[in-house]
Amino acid sequence: MHDGKLKAEIGPGIAAATLILFAEGDGRPAEHLMIQRSEQMRFAPNALVFPGGRVDEDDHHIAGDPARVDLGLADQVDRAHRIAAIREMLEEVGILVGVATSRAVDAAALQAGLKQKAPFSSLLADAGARLDLSALVPWAQWHPRFESHRRFDTRFYIARHDGDRAVSVDVDEVGHARWLHAEQAIAESEAGTAKVIFPTLCNLERLAAYPAFDEAAAHAATITRGPISPFMEVDAEGERWVCIPDDGGYPRTRRAISTLQMP
After folding, report:
1. 3-state secondary structure (DSSP) of residue 162
2. More confident residue, 1 or 215
3. Extended beta strands in 94-144, E state
4. Is residue 9 part of a domain?
5. How many domains are there within the chain?
6. CB-based burial, 46-72: b 16+ in 10 Å, e otherwise
7. I want to staple 153 with a disulfide (CB 3.0 to 4.6 A). Which of 22, 137, 143, 251 is the partner?
């Protein structure tokens, strides 16, 4: 039976975007850049997550500017989410993804500008930078509707990363950043040495099943379902389970709530 704490009528969540990088080499499974959120953060403090954050109005402004992006790619809402994913990656760890211009762009200067609250649109214009949003491949959309949690409607994207793996973290939001294989992050969660919340854990398990970017992108292209909204079930023994639909591309779709780390 379903647990009564899930309310389908709850309104839209906070629009957000997350970017998962694939750094490959030597035939090994890709490493993904993950951050430990600051302990001062209101949502999921100290949790190990992928870089990301809220979509803002300036992201939508850039999404409609033909000087900065290809307006023929997807729709403006999706373009704004991709821009937010790029901006948050840059702001949190100093890595700039998806630049289409041939001239060199100073990622450190852009990150510093974001830290000073300069609009991303202005920083891109000053740098003469145009974004290649096609570098980001849609991976999933999560929209949890549990009443007890802050509700984010988050679009996840994946992208290949062939550049420098050095990071420059924003200490106000990030405790530290690490490149991890998906299996390694899962192992740390199971050992209790890392805090990994349910959506991140599900995505790590899916990444572990598709450890190369081309493989993951091909898999993602086969998934057409809409936003994933976890739901509760209670079995005959009274055990409570958090579940997700079985057509979202995830290898494991239910976990006992007693085994999960809470936000």
Report:
1. coil
2. 215
3. 137-142
4. no
5. 1
6. ebbbbbbbebeebbbebbebeebbeee
7. 143
**Residue 185 within any structural domain of the chain:** yes
Strand runs labelled E in 9-162: 14-25, 28-37, 48-49, 52-54, 137-142, 152-160
Residue range 157-198, pLDDT digits in tens: 999 999 889 999 888 778 789 999 999 999 999 999 999 999
Kindly report, residue by residue over 83-110, the tens digit of the pLDDT: 999 999 999 999 999 998 778 899 999 9
State the Cα–Cα distance between residues 183 and 204, nearest whole angstrom. 7
Residue 8 forms part of a structural domain = no
Buried b (16+ CB within 10 A) or exposed e, 169-201: bbeebbbebbebbbebbbebbeeeebbbbbbbb
User: What confidence tier does 23 reach under pLDDT thresholds 50, 70, 90?
Assistant: very high
> What CATH number did the domain enclosing 238 receive?
3.90.79.10
- Residue 60 domain-assigned? yes
CB 83 within 8 A of CB 62: yes
